[in-house]
Amino acid sequence: MSGGGSLRVRLAATDPVRRQGLAAMIRAGGHEVVDDTPDVALFDVGEAADESEAPALVLTKDGVVTGSPAGVLLSDVTPEQLELAIRTVAAGLLVRSPSLPADRGFAPLAEETPLLTPREREILTLVGHGLSNKMVARRLGISVHTVKFHLEALFDKLEATSRAEAVAKGLVGRVIEL
After folding, report:
1. d(CA 141, CA 173)
2. Which of 61, 96, 131 is the last residue of a domain?
3. Which domain holds residue 165?
């Protein structure tokens, strides 16, 4: 079923039977289950998604999740759905099961909310966590100049004059979540 290269997936599941089943689904999709440096972090029902470097995909029974994972699917996910979700969140996009309520952090954006690139959202989120340009650059493995370039672009899009105003507008417009 694999539609591209193999991805490294960290799996958090405490139930050994469930973990074995999810690991088999991940491997069937052509991916590798790893403990370190993943491309995607998969959290089973009841597991708390951490703030890792990898995009998080969370499986839930009722749509209730904490934090702001890149993906939320129901726990009865099919192997095909899991494969597509892993690839989608690894590509920097958001995934939500269509049967989950829209108010679970994936509601449509207001029409006047500008669209930010995935990198701009990532930088704005890190700025919202209080990181300096230099710290953002280190975290993302890019130059400080590139961080400044993205900040200028998102300031223009959000019509903000300061970092704090940009973060506030990003939160109000649901462009980012902290």
Report:
1. 27
2. 96
3. 118-172
Residue 132 has pLDDT above 90, yes or no: yes
pLDDT of the residue at 102? 55
Question: Amino acid identity, residue 102?
Answer: A
Q: Looking at residue 1, what is its pLDDT? A: 42
Residues 29 and 92 in one domain: yes
Coil, helix or strand at residue 166: helix
The residue among 25 and 52 whose pLDDT is bigger is: 25
Torsional sign, CA 124, 40, 13, 79: positive
The pLDDT value recorded for residue 45 is 78
Q: Are strands 71-74 and 95-96 parallel, antiparallel or unpaired?
A: parallel
Pairing status of strand 95-96 against strand 56-60: unpaired
Both 40 and 80 in one domain: the answer is: yes
Specify the number of domains making up the chain.
2
pLDDT > 90? residue 7: yes
In a domain, residue 1? The reply is no
